[in-house]
Fold each of these.
Amino acid sequence: MQIKRIGIICLAGRGHLYPATALGRKLRDHGFEVTIFNRNVARSLVQAASLRFGLIQDVCSDHVDVFPPQSCRGPGPNTLNIMFNHALLVLQYARQVFTQARIEALLVDQMDLASGTVADILGIPFLNLCFSPPLYFDDESPPLFLTGNRALDSQRSDAMRREMHCSVD
């Protein structure tokens, strides 16, 4: 079977969407039908890239707060909450959206912990792509943070790994 319809799914951040849309345009230029699946907040960026947009509902994203506020590190969004909320949305809505779009293969952002599972359930071949620094769940891996202070880097990295383990267990 020759694959013609490819789906791409990633987190809604620009650091994920820009590489996803660039890849989508290249695939489209090589004759593939490409749909990028995401929350409504990404619609304009995807459509500006002249790619198809598949909506993953985001009705529960404002209602779920898995980690208490003290687990947030500094200003800005908590990455683990974003990943967890994205996984909830994908597990709840993606099966129907992928089926309706009739995609034949799926390219999945490494930070997306659920889309590969949904693709597997549907029998859709998928490939994980890295649109961000890799996640290391192994305690022996290098620190996730590099501030120059070894003790602080190790402490922050250990705390982040513990939260990551909790989010996927």
Amino acid sequence: MEAGGPRRAPSTTATTPFVDEEGTVVNGGYKSSKIRSVFCGKPPLLSSHVGSESGGFEMSNAVRRRFAPLSFAAGLLLGGTFVVAIAAEASTAATTYYGCLHKGSLSKVGVKAPTCPSGYKLLSWNSEGPQGAQGIQGNQGTTGATGQRGVQGATGPRGATGSRGPQGATGETGPGAAMFTSSGTYTVPFRVTQVRIVVIAGGGGGGGGNGVAQSGSGGGQGASETVVASVAPGTLLFVTIGPGGVGGQPTCDAASFGQPGSASQVSTNVEILAVASGGSGGLGPCDPPYPSGGAGGPSSATAQSGVTPIGASPGQAGGSAPSGSGGGTAGVAGSGGAGGAFGVGQGGSSGYAEIIPS
């Protein structure tokens, strides 16, 4: 062994080094560095790092100085094969080194493979082996935290206009509006110059009756009119509601006839703005035995300056005997009274009026 080389390990009875389970060369209680690469040859027994008295693997000082970062671990005889174990202590780079081995001496060490003379063994160490097979997939990691909410996108284009919905229910009467079921007055509110007026006349009374074969007929329904009138604020309007006609008596004279309904109107102290005529009364049972019902009130359109007629409707006639129903819907303003079957005919309904600023 050259002077200045690594010290020899103390001689023991068992001088042959061995490799433990962690890949460490051990000889007589002395451990070298971790093995990185192992290469096989045929010389006798020892390395320059772990000594033995039976022979050795010699390395020149020039080789040691050149590859100072490397620690040469051991040579050992396993089943007649010489194993060279070399460990890299100072460097972790996977650089492949080469050398020529002959009779325990390593020469021509470098990072390029040399041409070894006849009888020499070419060795290499720190070389990377082939890539191993892909390992099994690991367990799925835990779900990460929810990221921040992104910015709101731009407003989309306006959609097409939908179909028109059904008309809603009529709202409550606004300020200044008034409804009349009996006569009264109305003062035009401040700043109001136009009003909408609706008038319905009273219905005729039903004729009296004195038996199934001698029933009275129904009274006629009162007429109605709607107008828009120009007015001055503060003007006083007079509202007249026509009462329904009285029903006829169960006789065979004129008393059996139902009485006509009265007209309804709205007027100033100068002119009539709207008017509707009452329905006729039903006839009695004796003339003729099955008389026709009373006529409905005739329609009339007011023709006054500053008044615009919107609509005028005549009343519905009363029913003929023996059923004798009154004209219009029973119980509604202006409807005619039903004819009597065994007694007095039913009276007609009173009229109605409403005034709404427009």
Amino acid sequence: MPAPRIEISLAKLIHNARTVRSLYASKRISVTAVTKGVCGSTKIAEALLKSGIRSIGDSRIANLRKMREIGLEAEFMLVRLPMVSEIESVIEFADISLNTEARVIRALSEEAVRRGRIHRVLLMVELEDRGNVRRAILALGRQDIEVSALRPREGASVLGASSDHLILDIGDLRLRVGDEVRFDIGYGALLRAMSSPFVEQVYLS
């Protein structure tokens, strides 16, 4: 067998997922299985559906797309804030998305109406930080980049990151939803970005 490797017991996964689903079903709570930690593995998603779970969540549209394209039948949820640049893909491949910004919700609504589709929105409320810190949430996280090797160019500083998002203190910068922020990167960030299937490589002549 090849090494190094990670071994996944699909039988145990199905058993555990079925147990969780049954536990919450008895309380009339439905379960969404989130596959972002396994890069949207279609084999794992298929096993989760065999357990009786009917809803799959992922933080990447590319992962939801590959599940749909192999014919998995489920309710698909995008479990991170959609970018303005991916509105069309969100409507095409996700049934539900998490949202905080009115501008993005309006764009989703317009695209859904244009396609004659129903797209549901789970509204999240962002609570203000203490003090006078002005924050920006970027669609870039630890799954994409080595955060400690990022240096914002435009008078901002990194406050922290999750697997899917980067939080910046933007000071006096005036940013709108959909604006881009440029970074200088160290070797660790370069290596992670070039290895990530979720970071687009654009070559400039």
Amino acid sequence: MNHINDDALLKRVLQLLEKDDLEEQDRHLSGCSLCTTRLAEISDETNILGSIEPDIQVPEIPLPRSDRSLSFRLMKIAALLIIGFVAGYAVSRSSGISLVTIVPYQVSHATVQPPLSQFTVCE
């Protein structure tokens, strides 16, 4: 007679067996006192292990202090502004657009143009 191994009995205790395997074990256990005894032992051991509550202490990890948070933020803002100005300058230089310089000057003798109401119509 082939006996049920301990792994299969443990699966039964933990209710991890498929319906077909469970029915097969039921048929075997109804006629095998050795496997029935071993099933009771595994069930007791599992109950004992399940009742143990480990003493776990979660360590407290100190968070970094925020004394420098304002100065760090200001440094980030300054760095972003510098990067923005440099990138803008680089884009303007690489786009081929030349800078236009506007120089104001005064015309001393301005001539008055005639009104533009005199047009010639071509048909």
